[in-house]
Amino acid sequence: CPSLMLREVASMYFTMVAAFLVILVVALQGSVPRGTDFPYKVPLDPQGLLELSWNVSYPEQAVHFQLLIRELRFGLLFGMSDRGEFENADLAVLWSDGHNSYFGDAWSDAKGQLHMDSQQDYQLLGARRAPEGLYLLFRRAFSTCDPKDYLIEDGTVHLIYGILEKPVRSLQAINISALHGGLQRVQLLKPNISIPQLPSDMKTMEITAPDVVIPSQETTYWCYMAELPEGFPKHHIIMYEPVVTAGNEGLVHHMEVFQCAAEFDSFPHYNGPCDSKMKPDRLNYCRHVLAAWAMGAQAFYYPEEAGLAFGGPGSSRYLRLEIHYHNPLVFKGRRDSSGIRLYYTATLRPYDAGIMELGLVYTPVMAIPPGEDSFILTGYCTDKCTQLALPTAGIRIFASQLHTHLAGRKVVTVLSRDGREQQVVNADTHYSPHFQEISMLKEVVAVFPGDELITTCTYNTEDRSRATVGGFGILEEMCVNYVHYYPQTQLELCKSAVDPGYLHRYFSLVNRFNDEEICMCPQVSVPQQFYSIPWNTFNRDVLKSLYSFAPISMHCNKSSAVRFPGEWEKQPLPSITERLRERVPRCPGSPEPHPAAPIPLDLGQLRR
Amino acid sequence: CPSLMLREVASMYFTMVAAFLVILVVALQGSVPRGTDFPYKVPLDPQGLLELSWNVSYPEQAVHFQLLIRELRFGLLFGMSDRGEFENADLAVLWSDGHNSYFGDAWSDAKGQLHMDSQQDYQLLGARRAPEGLYLLFRRAFSTCDPKDYLIEDGTVHLIYGILEKPVRSLQAINISALHGGLQRVQLLKPNISIPQLPSDMKTMEITAPDVVIPSQETTYWCYMAELPEGFPKHHIIMYEPVVTAGNEGLVHHMEVFQCAAEFDSFPHYNGPCDSKMKPDRLNYCRHVLAAWAMGAQAFYYPEEAGLAFGGPGSSRYLRLEIHYHNPLVFKGRRDSSGIRLYYTATLRPYDAGIMELGLVYTPVMAIPPGEDSFILTGYCTDKCTQLALPTAGIRIFASQLHTHLAGRKVVTVLSRDGREQQVVNADTHYSPHFQEISMLKEVVAVFPGDELITTCTYNTEDRSRATVGGFGILEEMCVNYVHYYPQTQLELCKSAVDPGYLHRYFSLVNRFNDEEICMCPQVSVPQQFYSIPWNTFNRDVLKSLYSFAPISMHCNKSSAVRFPGEWEKQPLPSITERLRERVPRCPGSPEPHPAAPIPLDLGQLRR
Questions:
Q1: Where do the DOMON domain residues begin and end (chains A, B) (predicted)?
Q2: ipTM score of complex
């Protein structure tokens, strides 16, 4: 069997599905984990030609990747970048010049030009042919100390991929803009949580959309109403997992199950797009999250002591399933019956789990000027509110779902005690509004009466020409962290907004400081006033100063409408006297000034 | 002759001035420069027991130090720190435990505790006994890449020294707070300028204070009036140098020669302290700097094409010499006849040199809130002014004297062209108001019509409880760069201040934003309005925003009272679209995590 080049492999494009086994001999740079050692899996492209599996080793502070390439042509790029762009990306590249194949750790500059890294941090561990395709195995430390490398952190990671359709002379010759490629968002650093014991009386319930024809458009939010049996008593949801129709793994982007409001006796049945004119308005009252899953996420487990109550008196029998289909290749006629499988028990656990909203009130008084690359808004859950509403023994936060609308770029919640920051509750510095899963926390966070929870959201409005105000609309903004905790308390909302009186002073100040006559009259709505501000540096700076100075209006609420008793207007801003230190990776030494050579892949031992 | 320990050396304290020669054999880590290779010299302590000589190698990017210790006890510390403090300092330490002696590169933490550096960057080159004392020779690179080390930059360097009076067990055992020590400010990185050719008809004139008895107090500014001969024609000063009475090198801190205003026919003779009630008021009209020297500075040379005009019609015959005596040990009865020696020629050079004031107008509208650790004020010389006032061929700036009052911490002037920063004219990031010399620039800076000169001063008001306004008083502030240039133009002042109308809007804004009723009435003076502001974060932030946004009032003046024709009020702030990159030192690798061992000094070869 003679030496077989990647080019020839490509010529066998349509026969490659047939079973033949190729063993690629490559320089091994570490132990090769077995295929079963990759518990997490996600399709990279909508067709499912590239499939990524991985595991996370916290002792080694490294991720092991297994990339399945179903139809290899002349190579591929795989990597990570800040927000999924191909510029300034950190890439593992497999490429063929038509004769020989190479693997290397590379980076792309601001113009998309590829360069070999001086330090090779995507360590190739092996390559293996299987009937389904070529498996590439490689390892990457979270932090490499190579300034050109991506730092793998908690939260969202934007994975990018590109397929080489032609041979290339060298890495530098790859034209990144002409690549067929895309991005996939995942939480790479899955928490290392032991799975709680499940009771023997556990039952399952599938909330799935029956036989949906996925619309042939890029984005669809599908709504389906489900119903619990009449007289269904109180149970505890103790786990849930996705049910994805085989073959649609690349299309089902995320799914959520909402419980409807108890004040309505019935909800209409509906099965159709969420934005359809035919959708009954009453479905808007189904907003209480019971379960949420996003691509790449696994099963969600409640802690052993707690479960999420559903059923029983005082709760609605109606559930709304929402599925986001992402169909960029506009496949037609694909049928889908995906959804979420709930695992529940009648043997109630010691504690009901609860969900609390932290962050900003949905109000236009919190606004972001246009043209900002990273504008920060902060929402507070004050000591006064936790003092009043939390039990002496405190609560335990075990999961968190971060939420903003389209301009959101980062979300961080920090726990502060006596003005000193204690720990990060949840942080996503590569947050995307298109990837909102409920993340189990690595560490359960205990919150006691008198603690403060400070949620900071960073927004990008560079593409907008007028101010973005807070609100429910998709082009308005939110800054929310839905924290999942136990034992459940009456506190459902612990959020803030700037005092409206101070905002009014800001508007009249802007009025005085600008020579143009702009009507900032009080009879004009807050959004209209924001829209009419001429956004010079002074007006921007002063708005920032206002938000970090003015007293706040607190929503310390039992439900969205019912406040705890007390004075919640014109509250002082929590002050921080001691910040958490940023963790700076310790680096053994700075990299060599010249780039390393790629690793040639010996493809000479191909066997059918 | 047996081995002689430092302890025994100490016991011979009073006999050490007698001639004996000690040769210390130490590990040589480089070539040892000869004693004559140290052109710069400064006494460290007022008694002159420690004398530092040094040279600067720009090719090696290193300074070679020669430290003369006249009376060695149990060792000494020598080093550098941000502003002369003993905490967070970078130190070379020679110490004895009573038996053995050691040399090491160390650092002190925020509590003053000493630690060995992991990287030894004060490289000991040799040690030599001479009749006058012990010479230590060592080398230090400007930038070491050790994060605990001081970065040697252009501008002021605060040298510190401490004398060990007792043996110490180890470096860590040194109690830095109990040391007898002090600080000395110098410009370490002297520019590497070739000395211009001097004409054969050069004459000298000494402006010296005759036989002053230095007052026995820490600080004295001495004023002495001198007079040019009647009918003295126009000459060019082409060089000047200090004349310091032998023995007073540690006391004469800095000296300036001012020319008096031409509008007065005569000035009274005076020889006494500048702050005396007996000092005639008219001496305040002698403010035009002819020459300025500070400790550690050498001779000042004008460029070959230019000289500073003095004498002749239209200029005053009267000169004021001001000497700052720094006498912290309160010596009594010391006599001094120091001053400045001017070198001048009747053969006028092609160009008259001129002095131009850049920065801020002396006005209270530019103010610094109290309690700020680094508040920035910026003064502009706009394109409109240089367009009008500079010749088409431009001017050449060859020297600069930075000036603030007591709160000044940094001063930087940058040249900008078409909104893009071109080069730093002069920068002192460790600026001290107590060390103001005229520095020759490393590179002559060409300024053309339409260029902008932006001067930024950073102030510290942490020790103040009320606002610091701009003005002439020592507790008011200035932000000035006196640039020396040729050919002389009519432009004497190119400075700015915020538009007073915008400042007034700020005051009324503060009024509206604070619930307390404070009178910010227009009939109250600007300083009084600043003094009555309640300094919360909002009022501070908005003042910063105001200064970086509001239009400016330009002083584009022929003299302090006469403006160039044109509209100079409500001018737009120059905008910068491209900043100069900060030079980040390239580091070969990060240091070892564990500290290095000190170098033992072999003192076994002592000979009388």
A1: 48-164
A2: 0.70
8 A C-beta contact, residue A35 and residue A135: yes
* Non-local CB neighbours of B278 within 8 Å, separated by 6+ positions: B270, B272
Q: Which of B235, B288, B403, B484 is catalytic?
A: B403
Distance from the Cα of B504 to chain A's closest Cα (Å) equals 10
Are residues B508 and A508, on separate chains, in Cβ contact within 8 Å? no
pLDDT above 90 covers a percentage of chain A that reads 61
Beta strands in B284-334 (DSSP E): 288-294, 300-301, 306-310, 318-326
The DSSP element (H or E) to which B509 belongs, if any, is helix B500-513
Residue B196: name the closest of B338, B345, B411 by CA: B345
- Please, which residues bridge with residue B340 across strands? B207, B242
Q: 């002559």: which residue's tokens?
A: B444
Number of inter-chain CB pairs under 8 A, A vs B:
52
**Nearest chain A residue (CA) to B548:** A538
A334, burial (CB in 10 Å: exposed 0-12, middle 13-18, buried 19+): middle
| Alpha carbon B109 to its chain's center | 25
Does residue A470 contact residue A464 with C-beta atoms inside 8 Å?
Answer: no
Q: With a cut of 70, which residues of chain B have pLDDT below it?
A: 1-36, 515-522, 560, 583-597, 601-608
Q: Can you tell me the distance from the alpha carbon of A256 to that of A269, in angstroms, rounded to the nearest whole number? A: 17
Asked whether the bond before A500 is cis by omega within 30 degrees of 0, the reply is no
Q: Does residue B303 contact residue B443 with C-beta atoms inside 8 Å?
A: no
CB A590 within 8 Å of CB B589: yes
Contact (CB, 8 A) for A603 and A129: no
Element (H, E) at A500: helix A500-513
A542 contacts on B by Cβ (under 8 Å): 541-542, 545
Within A324-437, residue ranges assigned H as helices are 383-389
The residues facing A78 across adjacent strands are A92, A161
How far is residue A310's CA from residue A303's CA, in Å, rounded to a whole number? 16
Helix B537-547 × helix B500-513 angle, to 10°: 160
Q: What does the alpha-carbon distance between residue A564 and residue A491 come to, in Å, rounded to a whole number? A: 8
- Residue percentage of chain B with pLDDT more than 90: 61
For chain A, list the domains and their CATH numbers: 40-190 (2.60.40.1210), 191-349 (2.60.120.310), 356-499+554-582 (2.60.120.230), 500-553 (no CATH)
> Which of helix, strand or coil describes residue B225?
strand
Mean pLDDT for all residues in chain A: 86
What DSSP line would sit under A99-164, residue for residue? Answer: S-EEEEEEEE-TT--EEE-SS--SEEEEEEEETTEEEEEEEEES----TTSPPP-SSEEEEEEEE-
Rounded to an integer, what distance in angstroms lies between the CA atom of residue B377 and that of residue B458? 7
CA distance B476 to B459: 11
Alpha-carbon span A194 to A506, nearest angstrom: 51
Strand B493-498 and strand B354-360: the pairing is parallel
Tell me whether residue B221 is one of the annotated catalytic residues: yes
Q: Which residues in chain A have their CB less than 8 angstroms from residue B587's CB?
A: 590
Instruction: Please give the pLDDT value at position A51.
Output: 94
Distance CA A262, CA A279 (A): 20
Task: Report the alpha-carbon distance of residue B162 to residue B505 in Å, rounded.
Answer: 52
Tally the residues of chain A: 608
Is the CB of residue B324 less than 8 Å from the CB of residue B220? yes
Q: Which is it for strands A420-428 and A408-417: parallel, antiparallel or unpaired?
A: antiparallel
**pLDDT of A169-220, one tens digit each?**
888 889 888 888 899 999 999 988 888 889 999 999 999 999 999 999 988 8
